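For anyone still unconvinced, we reproduce a single protein record, the chain in one-letter code, the fold tokenised, and leave readers to judge:
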Amino acid sequence: MFIFTSHCKKGMVSKKTMSFGPVPRMPEVPKGEYAELKFSESGDLTWEHKEDGEYGMKRYTPILLLSHPSVESLPSSGSAMHWVSKSEAADQLHNVVLNGLDGGNGKLREEIFGKKWKLTRSITGSYRLDQA
């Protein structure tokens, strides 16, 4: 079986025409710990909401992972991947970015992209996003 995939964003010309294998995913943050990241709106990764096996619909958020307690070695510039989650934090972020819930002035988008964020997982397992 041969599977061909191509990802193109509107108005984006990409030299990349074929991809094989999954896009890297950020490992789950252990309870009581945090990861540092930046959100991405450039590159080949896309913002999606899709089925993810037995766990239902999840948000696929493009990130640049800067630090993570389960990843020993990351490049100083970070590593591009998806944060895959069905958390309330992911839902709220997607609503602002994809649905323009900032009143159409783009101010919240400016605050989201290009800044470092801390993704904390509580001891109960919920996620919280705070600017670092």
Notes: The beta strands are 34-39, 48-51, 57-67, 79-85, 117-121, 127-131. The mean pLDDT is 83. DSSP finds two helices and six strands in the chain.
